[in-house]
Structure prediction request, 122 residues.
Amino acid sequence: MKTELLDAVEANSLKKDTPNFEIGDTVDVRCRIKEGNKERVQIFSGTVIARKGRGINETFTVRRIVNNEGVERIFPLHSPFVLDIQPIRSGKTRRAKLYFLRQRTGKAVKLAQRHSKHTISK
Prediction:
């Protein structure tokens, strides 16, 4: 009963067109940033290393390397500040959380590319 009421209230705030991306995918996240009275859009590109939660509380973590330093950012999936999520390439993984990438540097960070199942054959 309680979860049904919460789901009904949260339904108004959920985004209708969330893109389909998975753990290991490389994505571009466009997020709105307010600085004083100005607003701008910033793109954060990286690999999705975790997804958790459900409904309005669903979040995903994106990791990238900047100046040989790992940068991770956690985004709420249904936040109004997250404007768009564009999957760039899909990575092949066997884990739900890719926290082991934190210890890796250089080429070892790169994941193998997952090929689409829907290939056209003649």
